[in-house]
Protein: RNA polymerase, sigma subunit, ECF family
Amino acid sequence: MTEARPLGADEAAFIAVARSGDPARFALITERHRRELQLHCYRMLASYEDAQDMTQETFLRAWNKRESFKGHAALRTWLYRIATNVCLDFLEKRTPLPAELPDLGFELRYLQPYPERMLPEDPQESAVARETIELAFIVAVQHLPPRQRAVFVLRDVLGWPASKAADALELTVASVTSALQRARVTMREQLPGRRLDWRSPATHELSDDERGVVRSYIDAHERNDLAGLTSLLRDDLRFAMLPDPGTVTTTAGDAVDGWISGGLFQHGHDDWRGITTTVNRMPAAALYLRTPGDPEYRLFAVAVLHVVDGKIAELTGFDAAGKPWLDLPPTL
Structure:
């Protein structure tokens, strides 16, 4: 079930590198695929740092298996196959969720934002439709068992035919078809009302509506305008603050009351600045807090927003400390 195709320039070059055993030449020819492979690993694992590690493991396995590459499939296909199986091996060893959290249904504690600078430069080639990198999609994928997850990403995100996915995962075509059908049912359940045609073109740009809501969200923090902040939130807000587990659906008023009871907007946590940014191709606010006696505003959190009809329908907050890969200034 290999991909019938003539030997291309990349494949011929890689075979020559494999025969030479030159690691520098190997790195040169495989490095161009790093971003798309890392994004693939992120969709599988939901963690930017784990995706980085598994991409490195992919290149290590590719180096160790370089002599097995005969050019029957495209080099890119061969690397994706290795990356997929690296992720599946990793998921088998990942610590499962505690038994006392049975209702979560997904591994939110592993969710990390994805920096825009690390997205592939060619969206069409690397299947980076906006919807397939948004947090809701990444979380929904985590509901799938690992092998269903791999089938779904290969078939419905990357657009691989069933035979190619079956070859990569060492399954039958019938098994791949069955797994995909089950995965699609789960994805429809987890993303009600969202478009599910992942391979058709999608805009990557934020709308004016989204940009305006982010500016208003930051402004409400800077002015400690709790009424203004409440007015930006839908009454069926879905809220998560990582690394705390779980997502809650709450009213706008209850959400703000909860933040206040947790200490936000109280003395010592009431001097804010913010900058507009994007992560996972979504509008986001990087929030900076200045505590008494500190001359600088220090990076506190990143709030990633899903905006529907001018209101924040979903808000996922991330502790931004210790994440230099987000490329945000540590102080203002």
Notes: Confidence is low (pLDDT under 50) at residues 99-107. The chain has two domains: 9-190, 208-326. The longest helix spans residues 75-93.
